[in-house]
């Protein structure tokens, strides 16, 4: 039999001595002609083997690597000369033809020469190093930008309370099957609430992910104090149906709901039973202390924080939901639009179910067909300081119409005007005051629902949570009756000429009270008119004795005796003159819009605990058609002595006060945008830029100084940036240099129910002193470095999916080279090869796909690319699930950018894994230290101790069976996956020791193989860890009920079998037939899926990798025969037939 040594042509699948592939270790120089024919190659290899044969002692040294010898000691047997033994045939089918064999041999020669220079797995080429460093540099820039640039200031003031909690022990297992796990409490404020009897309106607080039932205390304490100190003393308020609030809260033992869908369902089921029990308390006279004449409550107001808001919406789709038991839901920092992470398939499905249910309900034409017609949903988002849940996800515009709900940001809420982090939204003193007053305004104990009708509730919430300048804001002046009679002299000179502006730089300058009248332009006047008024004084309501009052008046004919009987207030400036004019007026105080005070001394729109409170500005704004029924606007200066303060009032044309600048993002990026506010401008100027809609970009806005001369300006420039959907407003006082960021069109967020208009975009409102008679220059530019930080919150979950594209492509290259040449290259070398062609081509293809499916308008539709193409709705709510989650072609560069970062991250993880295995291997070597007096011959015979000392077959089968049994009954398969990762790490450490001590192609192949599989499993581990954390948490709270999800044995069995197989040291056989393409197709499919759907459906990546692992197990099983004996070989024996016959080698 002729022998040759041409490298590892066939796969090594059994224990052998250390292979002596000297052509790989010390190759002589050769040219391309050496691989011309098989015979020539054999002669060259034979000479190489003869000249460089190692000493006999070394050739007898046995390896402890347990893979089967398919080749003789001097090299592999030429398949053309003698047929191979069946047990040593690695491929599923024989090779096809001599030409294919020659091509493989040529490729092997070339790759062998290349591998000589990158033998070590630590080696890295300069291009790979540069690309990896660039990726890590970009990642560092993103992280640095997220913590240093475009940050919202913190303005929350601390809240204080005296809490106590009464546990409702009667809510036991007779009412719910979760009574042993969860608990229900009633909040009581010490010193105010006495006893545990219910006497008010029921409110249920639902904590969020890992939240505590005690988080209800700031809002509940404020409600108790406000009713005790203010409301109960107001007879009109009590008569209107306002009562105290009974806050109920639930102890979920800090359940982790964001990662586990079944936990959400359990909580929703428990809460529906809790509401049924809460309502029953008001029927029991022993517990209820309500007026018996009032109707019994039939519904509960729900407050939800974070995931508690999603659980609140889930309650309405549960089978045990009591109809109409919930009609008002207010959520804080709740991710309504999409799940925060998509690692659990069940939570993704629950989101789809509840969102589809809500959308379908509000799509009904008739109210009788809508089960949610009576429900109002208000979502409050914390804004840029919330780094736990992106505030973009708090949007409900894709779920409910504006008649039933809306989204507002805390920066929008009047007298709050600050962003909040995820927890501060519960205890922030300014915000808790607003939310408690809003709830008191919607309650009505005279109705069984305990709340006002839906339309009135929506008006109340919009008044408390919106600025009042939105298009949906309703003015109250046209709906009221006249309350004031204003009497003036006929020859009064207080009437301002038509078109003139009223400017009062000081109140009470005339030494007496005075009324200033602005004529209202008649209907049909040219141009669109708007009335605006700004002052630093608070406006009086009817009967108040303040400094300033604003009235809308019409001429009233004199009728004896009617003035005193009809009007509640009479203001007389006639001085008993014989000729006078009487005006019937309506007070405008109810329509006042609060604006943060803007002076040279202010820095933020809010004030901190240790700063002096500055009263806000008062602003009025009316369109002409809203006040056209009146004839005058009367500004009544009541100050009797000169008093600091200013008033500016005017009618302005829409053409002068509104501008629209159409500029593309590309032009804005390269050149910026400049505009000039002329000297003859209105007090308030609004500039809209329709192209500014994306939340991925941040901007810098510079406002030039104006020259006001000696007198100085009445107020410093005030800027408001706002979006119409969702309702986000930000105020900048004393504005000079402003950092602009927004929560508009965000990645992966579904489109709204109503399509956005092409003219929608970011708008800026400038309040400037018009008396300065000076131009103001404004410059807007994109903050590139600040925009990098916006990628962090929007694309955090990308790093759980997108790196698998790189890892799968690297593994694909490794298997292709191995199946062709018999050399399993290292992860680093395969990455270097992929960076030369496959990965750039993949990123380029994905970029082209993103551009082709994109649409420059927000109303684009890409449902064709989604597996669940919607046919029942015009709007595809899944159109943003693909790739980077946005259809704006401007962001095409994000795919290469994310790919670059992922390459760097994968390189770092590879070297971290290498370092970990090296350190553990070194520690393992120290623990297995052999004394120096052991003979060298004995040392060679024994080899590295305990490298692959496999346990008995029965023991391995028993461990696998026990683990699979536990998965099917008690533990989730994620726990078994963690165990598999640890076992794979141990196998990699052992393989690393062998590859470093016994250098051979077979040992290096096996080490590179198990190392790459370990890297792949580590990237899947973050997808499985959240569910494992939930399971461990359930055990920690002594919840003995079996874990009710994630017990699919098939989801983990391939991993267990493969990991157990690798512990024996068996190398995967080569597949030299057409079946080798199946491995490439599977890994290529994982790459495509990870990039396209990995973010939205990350849980599927585990199943896809599980499929690849199952295929590898199948390939391993074909090492001996097909198919059943192959599978049995994985467990029943190690080594080859000769080993079993000879027994243990001495």
UniProtKB/TrEMBL annotation:
Q: What is its EC number?
A: 3.1.-.-
Pfam families documented for this protein: PGAP1, PGAP1_2nd, PGAP1_TMD
List membrane-spanning regions: 122-143, 792-811, 891-924, 958-985, 1006-1025, 1045-1063, 1075-1095
GO biological process annotations for this chain's record? endoplasmic reticulum to Golgi vesicle-mediated transport; GPI anchor metabolic process; protein transport
Report domain GPI inositol-deacylase transmembrane positions: 798-1116
What one GO molecular function would you report for this record? phosphatidylinositol deacylase activity
List localization entries. Endoplasmic reticulum membrane
Supply the SUPFAM superfamilies for this chain: alpha/beta-Hydrolases
Say which domain of life the source belongs to: Eukaryota
Q: Which residues form the GPI inositol-deacylase PGAP1-like alpha/beta domain?
A: 198-441
Q: Residue ranges of region Disordered?
A: 1-112
Which residue intervals are annotated with compositional bias (Basic and acidic residues) in the record? 43-54
Q: Which UniProt keywords apply?
A: Endoplasmic reticulum, Hydrolase, Membrane, Protein transport, Transmembrane, Transmembrane helix, Transport
Per UniProt, the ranges with Low complexity bias are 80-95
Q: How does it sit in the membrane?
A: Multi-pass membrane protein
Question: Gene3D superfamilies from the entry?
Answer: alpha/beta hydrolase
Q: What class of enzyme is it?
A: hydrolase
For whether the record's keyword set contains Cell membrane, the answer is no
Q: Which family does it belong to?
A: Belongs to the GPI inositol-deacylase family.
What role does this protein play?
Answer: Involved in inositol deacylation of GPI-anchored proteins which plays important roles in the quality control and ER-associated degradation of GPI-anchored proteins.
Per its record, how is this protein called by name?
GPI inositol-deacylase
């Amino acid at each position: 039999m002729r022998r040759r040594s041409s490298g590892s042509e066939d796969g090594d699948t059994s224990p052998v001595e250390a292979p002596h592939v000297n052509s790989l270790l010390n190759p002589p120089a050769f040219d391309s002609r050496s691989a011309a024919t098989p015979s020539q190659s054999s002669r060259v290899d034979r000479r190489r083997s003869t000249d460089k044969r190692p000493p006999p002692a070394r050739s007898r040294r046995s390896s402890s690597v347990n893979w089967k010898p398919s080749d003789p000691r001097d090299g592999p047997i030429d398949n053309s000369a003698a047929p191979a033994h069946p047990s040593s045939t690695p491929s599923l089918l024989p090779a096809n033809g001599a030409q294919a064999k020659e091509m493989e041999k040529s490729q092997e020669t070339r790759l062998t020469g290349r591998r000589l220079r990158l033998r070590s797995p630590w080696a890295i080429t300069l291009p790979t190093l540069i690309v990896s460093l660039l990726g890590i540099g970009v990642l560092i820039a993103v992280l640095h930008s997220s913590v240093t640039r475009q940050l919202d200031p913190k303005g929350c003031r601390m809240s204080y309370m005296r809490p106590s909690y009464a546990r409702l022990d009667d809510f036991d297992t007779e009412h719910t099957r979760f009574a042993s796990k969860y608990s229900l409490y009633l909040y009581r404020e010490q010193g105010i609430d006495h006893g545990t009897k219910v006497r008010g309106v029921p409110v249920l607080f639902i904590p969020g992910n890992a939240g505590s039932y005690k988080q209800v205390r700031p809002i509940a304490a404020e409600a108790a104090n406000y009713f005790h100190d203010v409301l109960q003393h107001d007879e009109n308020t009590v008569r209107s149906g306002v009562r105290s609030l009974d806050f109920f809260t639930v102890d979920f033992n800090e359940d982790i709901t964001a990662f586990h869908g079944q936990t959400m369902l359990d909580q929703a089921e428990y809460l529906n039973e809790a509401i049924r029990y809460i309502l029953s308390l008001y029927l029991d006279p022993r517990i209820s202390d309500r007026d018996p004449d009032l109707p019994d409550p039939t519904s509960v107001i729900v407050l939800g924080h974070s995931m508690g808001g999603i659980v609140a919406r889930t309650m309405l789709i549960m089978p045990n939901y009591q109809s109409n038991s919930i009609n008002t839901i207010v959520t804080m920092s709740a991710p309504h639009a999409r799940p925060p992470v998509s690692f659990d398939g069940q939570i993704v499905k629950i989101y789809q179910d509840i969102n589809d249910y809500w959308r379908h309900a509000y799509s009904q034409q008739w109210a009788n067909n809508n089960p949610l017609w009576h429900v109002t949903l208000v979502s409050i988002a914390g804004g840029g300081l919330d780094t736990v849940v992106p505030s973009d996800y708090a949007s409900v515009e894709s779920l409910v119409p504006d008649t039933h709900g809306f989204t507002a940001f805390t920066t929008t809420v009047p007298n709050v005007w600050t962003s909040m982090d995820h927890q501060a939204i519960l205890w922030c003193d300014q915000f808790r005051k607003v939310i408690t007053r809003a709830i008191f305004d919607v309650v009505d104990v005279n109705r069984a629902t305990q709340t006002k009708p839906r339309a009135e509730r929506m008006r109340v919430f919009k008044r408390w949570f919106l600025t009042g300048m939105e298009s949906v804001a309703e003015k109250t002046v046209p709906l009221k009756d006249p309350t004031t009679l204003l009497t003036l002299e006929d020859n009064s000179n207080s009437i301002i000429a038509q078109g003139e502006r009223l400017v009062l730089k000081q109140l009470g300058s005339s030494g007496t009270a005075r009324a200033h009248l602005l004529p209202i332009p008649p209907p049909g006047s040219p141009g669109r008119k708007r009335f605006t008024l700004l002052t630093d004084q608070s406006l009086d309501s009817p009967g108040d004795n303040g400094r300033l009052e604003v009235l809308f008046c019409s001429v009233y004919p004199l009728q004896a005796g009617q003035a005193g009987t009809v009007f509640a207030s009479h203001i007389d400036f006639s001085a008993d003159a014989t000729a006078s004019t009487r005006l019937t007026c309506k007070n405008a105080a109810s329509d006042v819009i609060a604006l943060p005070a803007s002076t040279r001394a202010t820095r933020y729109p809010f004030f901190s605990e240790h700063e002096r409170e500055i009263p806000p500005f008062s602003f009025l704004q009316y369109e002409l058609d809203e006040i056209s029924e009146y004839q005058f606007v009367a500004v009544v200066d009541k100050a009797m002595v000169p008093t600091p303060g200013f008033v500016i009032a005017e009618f302005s044309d829409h053409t002068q006060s509104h501008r629209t600048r159409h500029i593309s993002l590309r032009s804005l990026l390269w050149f910026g945008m400049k505009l000039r506010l002329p000297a003859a401008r209105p007090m308030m100027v609004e500039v809209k830029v329709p192209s500014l809609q994306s939340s991925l970009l941040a901007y810098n806005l510079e406002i030039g100084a104006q020259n006001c001369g000696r007198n100085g300006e009445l107020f410093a420039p005030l800027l408001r940036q706002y979006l119409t959907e969702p309702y986000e407003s930000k105020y900048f006082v004393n504005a000079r240099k402003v950092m602009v960021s927004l929560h508009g069109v965000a990645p992966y967020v579904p489109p709204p129910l109503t399509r956005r208009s092409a003219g929608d975009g970011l708008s800026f409102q400038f309040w400037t002193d018009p008396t300065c008679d000076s131009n103001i220059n404004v410059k807007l530019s994109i903050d590139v470095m600040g925009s990098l930080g916006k990628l962090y919150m929007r694309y955090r979950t990308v790093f759980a999916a997108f790196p698998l594209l790189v890892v799968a492509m690297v593994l694909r290259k490794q298997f292709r080279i191995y199946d062709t040449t018999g050399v399993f290259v290292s992860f680093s070398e395969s990455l270097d090869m992929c960076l030369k062609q496959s990965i750039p081509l993949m990123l380029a293809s994905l970029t082209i796909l993103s551009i082709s499916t994109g649409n420059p308008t927000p109303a684009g539709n890409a449902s064709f690319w989604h597996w669940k193409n919607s046919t029942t709705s015009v709007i595809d709510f899944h159109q943003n699930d693909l790739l980077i989650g946005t259809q704006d072609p401007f962001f095409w560069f994000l795919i290469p950018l994310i790919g670059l970062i992922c390459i760097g991250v994968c390189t770092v993880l590879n070297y971290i894994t290498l370092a970990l295995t090296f350190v553990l291997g070194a520690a393992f070597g120290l623990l297995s230290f052999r004394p120096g007096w052991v003979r060298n011959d004995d040392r060679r015979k024994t080899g590295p101790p305990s490298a692959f000392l496999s346990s008995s077959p029965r023991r391995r089968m028993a461990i696998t069976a026990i683990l699979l049994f536990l998965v099917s009954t008690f533990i989730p398969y994620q726990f078994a996956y963690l165990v598999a990762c640890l076992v794979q790490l141990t196998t990699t450490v052992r393989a690393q020791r062998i590859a470093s001590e016994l250098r051979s192609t077979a040992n290096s192949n096996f080490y590179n193989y198990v190392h790459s599989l370990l890297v792949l499993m580590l990237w899947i581990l973050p997808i499985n860890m959240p569910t494992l954390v939930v399971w461990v948490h359930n055990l920690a709270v002594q919840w003995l009920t079996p874990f009710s999800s994630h017990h699919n044995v098939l989801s983990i069995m391939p991993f267990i079998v493969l990991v157990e197989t690798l512990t024996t040291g068996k190398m995967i056989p080569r597949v030299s037939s057409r079946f080798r393409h199946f491995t490439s197709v599977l890994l290529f499919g994982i790459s495509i899926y990870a990039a396209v759907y990995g973010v939205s459906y990350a849980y599927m990546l585990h199943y896809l990798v599980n499929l690849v692992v199952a295929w590898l197990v199948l390939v391993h099983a074909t090492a001996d025969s097909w198919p059943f004996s192959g599978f049995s070989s994985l467990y029943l024996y190690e080594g080859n037939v000769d080993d079993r016959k000879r027994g243990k080698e001495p």
